[in-house]
Amino acid sequence: MASGKKKTPARLAGKPSGAAPLLVELLTEELPPRALTRLMEAFSHGLTEALKEKNFLLPESLPQPYATPRRLAVVISHVLVKQSDRIVERKGPAVATALGADGQPAPALLGFAKSCGVEVSRLERQIGEKGDYFVYRAKQKGEPLKVHLASLVEAVLKKLPVPKLMRWGAGEAQFVRPVHAVILLHGNKIVPGTVLGLKSGNKTLGHRFLSKGALTVTHAKDYEKTLKQGKVLASFELRREAIAKGLDAAAHRVGGGVRWDLGKSADLVDEVTSIVEWPVVLGGGFDSAFLEVPRECLIISMQQHQKYFPLADAKDKLLPRFLFVSNQQAANPKQIIAGNERVLRARLSDARFFYDQDRKTRLETRVPRLAHVVYHNKLGSQLERVERLVKLSGEIAQRLDSDRRLAERAATLAKADLLTDMVGEFPELQGTMGRYYALHDGEPPAVAAAVEQHYWPRFAGDTLPADNVAAAVALADRLDMLAGMFGIGLVPTGDKDPFGLRRAALGVIRIVLEKNLPLQLNALIDLAYSYLPSQIGQAHTDVNGFVIDRLSGYLREGGATAQEVEAVLSRGLLSLAEAPRILKAVQDFQRLPEATALAAANKRIVNIIRKAGQEHRNADVSRLTDPAEVALFQALNKTHPAVESCVAACDYSGALQRLAALKQPVDAFFDQVMVMAEDPAVRDNRLALLGDLKALMNRVADISRLAV
To answer: For the residues 417-432, what does the mean pLDDT come to?
Structure first.
């Protein structure tokens, strides 16, 4: 029976003994640099949890992960040589169903006893919250670590986030890279076992070039020290720290205030840490004539292709110097430096050639060639998209009282740099090179800036377009994408968003809200669809809901509660830029002593009107007879002009605070007046009065959403 299969956690039956640090290391071929930290963390966590589940760890057991290009390892402190003896419990059937009327064992109890391998007489009765039940208890002897360790390691390896598995040699073992040796060392003793077809030992290799012969790890606690003797810094964090300090020191030697943290240097430090085992920071130089090439081109050439760190002075001016991290230690590194300078010279020469060649052709003459570049087979070419962006950008710019002509010109040139050699080599420079080439062509600075900035923000927290010309093109770019992709049914699902539509929607939100632009979302979506081909589906509602969902998340990330966000968004927004102001008003309202009672009353009103199914109409003053409903009517008439005046002045906090005056008459109304009166005319008029009250209370936000 099902009840007979349920297990309760085992309890220790004796004192643990034989605790010592455990080392597990896989010596491999060079591991994928960008996956190294994920593999390290997953291996350390997975093995720790597996040993904990098998009762080989103590409360004080802690893992220390290690990773280099050629190894994954973890040292876990306080690992038991043998599991403690345990009391194993299995919960059986309830007494009420386990015994028949004559007190004899029923089939359920007999089956449970048989599954436990004992007679019914060996079972115990346990008092439980829902009645007594039978339980089987037995002492289980702890098993030694050697029985389980190899299989646990194999199981953990199969669950690692491996980019792609490969086989090597004649065996069937699979891993991300070939594995040459496995260490399973508990204290100073080798734990016998086979992992990926390799027998465990205590030998590893040091640095590929700076160390000779095998290294013997005599004790698990000496792992890091032993590898250091073999010119390997096993700790990823210590290696990263050594690289960062080395870069700081080398930059300081070049000159005070010199910086190496340019571009994506932080990511590059992580990547370099994943490809060296014994880091040595060196410096080199290049011809200052290369500085005529845009700095972004030089930085990306050095960082992306060569893994070098460019240098800049205190004024952020690029220097004809660079730093790099070598995996070699030489008494005289001149040859290493010269070799790296030679390779970089070739890279920078390519960049200068691309730059010189690209400037021979004006951006505007590249635009017609966009007709041969497919944007999407259902949405046309890049040229057709540019033609839509021109119209959309101009219309948005006009609504922002900005220069329509400049916005249309920027939109015309926005995608032209996609056809340049430099962007072909470095796609990350799209927009950036467009700005340089536009300025070279003599385009207005505002147009050149918009060509670059229409891609902004590229990621969360990124800079926004500087002016409304650039903002108009940036909004057009995102709105056309959202409307088009939704129109052909390419809607993000789950965590899949290949076209970056979530990022596009958030970009629209950030540009409009943080630049306080008076633009209405529905109107923008309608505008985007008006310029798309007629055969594209009209998904206005879907796009609107998608953007509002992102807006909800944006406001919550800013510290708002779900109830506050619902109060703001449930009424709809005339302008996206209203959202933060209305949210602040709601938050101010909640601090009023009357807020809780008014929110609850509003929720009650909403429910009453919904159940009555009556459409809103104004109350007839001649039908008001009860003093409480007359008082409420008068309070409404007195408060209404004050609320409307505040709303007209965009003083949303003031509008909501005026509602405090309604608390007393609202309370009195519900205490003294029967809304659902028998007389239909009286009932309908009171419902109309409540409709007037609801309309006023929700003039700015739906405060019923604030009720608990």
So the answer is: 96
Beta bridge partners of 133: 94, 126
Cα–Cα distance, 590 to 627 (Å, whole number): 30
Query: Which residues, including other chains, have CB under 8 Å from residue 125's CB and lie 6 or more apart?
Result: 95, 132, 133, 134, 135
Task: Let me know: does 364 contact 412? Beta carbons within 8 Å.
Answer: yes
Torsional class of 355: left (φ above 0), alpha (ψ -120 to 50), beta (otherwise):
alpha
Which string of b and e fits 128-162 if b means at least 16 CB within 10 Å?
eeeeebbbbeeeeebeebbebbbebbeebbeebeb
Residues 316/259, Cβ–Cβ less than 8 Å: yes
- Cβ contacts of 678 within 8 Å, gap of 6 or more: none
Q: The domain that contains 689 carries what CATH number?
A: 1.10.730.10
Q: Count up the domains in the chain and report the number.
A: 5
Answer whether residue 214 shows pLDDT above 50: yes
121 and 50, same structural domain? no
Query: 299 phi and psi, to 5 degrees?
Result: -60, -45
Quick one: which H or E segment has residue 86?
Answer: strand 86-94
Q: Answer whether 179's CB lies under 8 Å from 198's CB.
A: yes
Q: Across the strands, what pairs with 310?
A: 322
Can you state the angle between helices 501-514 and 540-557, rounded to 10 degrees?
70
Distance CA 572, CA 567 (A): 10
Domain residues for 90? Answer: 86-140
279-297: pLDDT as tens digits:
999 999 999 999 999 999 9
| 2 located within any domain | no
Q: What is the dihedral of CA 55, 61, 65, 66, to 10 degrees?
A: -100
Whether residue 1 is predicted with pLDDT greater than 50 in this model: the reply is no
Kindly report, residue by residue over 254-284, the tens digit of the pLDDT. 987 899 998 889 899 999 999 999 999 999 9
Give the mean pLDDT of 461-467.
95
Domain final residue pick, 290, 324, 358: 358
* pLDDT of 12 strictly over 60: no
For strand 124-126 and strand 380-381, is the pairing parallel, antiparallel, or unpaired?
unpaired
Residue 7 CA, chain-centre distance (Å), reads 38
**Phi, psi dihedrals of residue 319, rounded to the nearest 5°:** -105, 155
Return the DSSP state at 447: H
- Same domain as 186, residue 54: yes
pLDDT band at 230 (very low <50, low <70, confident <90, very high): very high
For 444-448, which contacts have Cβ atoms below 8 Å and span 24 or more sequence positions?
444/406, 444/409, 446/403, 446/406, 446/410, 446/470, 447/406, 447/409, 447/410, 447/413
Q: Tens of pLDDT along 149-201?
A: 999 999 999 999 987 899 998 888 999 999 999 999 999 999 999 999 999 99
Q: What is the pLDDT of residue 504?
A: 97
Same domain? For 273 and 399 the reply is no
Q: Could you give the CA distance from residue 80 to residue 52 in angstroms, rounded to a whole number?
A: 10
**Range with lowest mean pLDDT among 10-24, 67-81, 115-129, 634-648:** 10-24
The answer to whether residue 343 is domain-embedded is yes
Q: Is the same domain home to 630 and 496? A: no
Which residues, in sequence order, are CB contacts of 52 under 8 Å at separation 6+? 61
Task: Choose one of 337, 358, 379: the last residue of a domain.
Answer: 358
425 and 555 housed in the same domain: yes
Residue 10, pLDDT > 70, answer no
